[in-house]
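Quick bug: 2,4-dienoyl-CoA reductase, mitochondrial-like output formatted oddly.
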Amino acid sequence: MACVNTTQNIMFVRVVWKQSRQALLVPRPATIYRRDLHLTSVAHSDSKFPNLAARKDAMLPSDSFKGKTAFITGGGTGLGKGMATMLSSLGAQVAITSRKLDVLEETAKEISKQTGNPVFPLSADIRDAAAVSAAVDQFVEKTGGLPNVVINNAAGNFIAPTERLSNNAVKAVIDIVLTGTFNVTLDIGKRLIKAKQGANFLAITTTYVHLGSGYVTPSAAAKAGVQNLTRSLASEWGWYGLRFNAIAPGPIYTKGAFGRLDPSGQFAEHMRQGIPLGRFGEVEEIANLAAYMVSDYASWMNGSCVDFDGGELPFSAGEFNRMKQVTPEMWDMIEQMGKKVKGS
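Here's what came back:
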């Protein structure tokens, strides 16, 4: 295809691109915006490729974590629950923590019934270092030792213009995400170093740690801090047999996250349009990845962050990627205009 290298033609391309972006804002059928819609079903209905369908079964051998223990924050719901279920199904004794003991107890019973392995609910506000220490004491008492796996998954977030946020709102998010992760990591890490015991740490961050994101500014700042904490300790504590890695997920449907960030559901389809693989991720998929990263199969993986987003990050980073909305007829016009340029 000939190069488009005149001001006129560049302007034409920009107009086309603007039209393509506007096309994304055309309202979809109202059923898409239902708050209770299971969005992953929408994503799968649009998939034309069987190889892109989500696998929900465990990919590791069923005894991969036999004799091992795991400490998971934010384990009562969503991604934390999914990862706890996966590790328990692979043989681990799992403890799940959050502030809501009733939710933890219900989740622990559900997982244990499904997997046949014990799951321990430990109530703790990870913003409070003393509460974290008490929870770790309980973990040691119930499991007989320090954890082999630590997953920092607890998070707090909401969507709002930054200028509307109060100092308390900002502090709440940063305290849960960054301070809470540091409290858990520091408490357990010190104990492991003293005991000369190795372990695997995993942090769940987000793809916008790389470039930031408006309207979730406290979360973006705090998650970026968690990512750098992870890489810093990979360098400093790797010598003690402690591995540190992170997963930066894109849109993975959970009722909690979508309910908070998109209560009306109106942006869900627009989000999916920005994922080259055409669907949202599923909890079981990130649980499989997490299980691998904290397993002995990944024993040389340290200081890594895996972007797990269906290609959303590179798609959003390229200004002209949205031109996928340009029709073949428009491309024909662009090509014909390019051929008229002398020397093209």
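Actually, after a second look the formatting is fine. Confidence is low (pLDDT under 50) at residues 1-17, 19-46. Closing.
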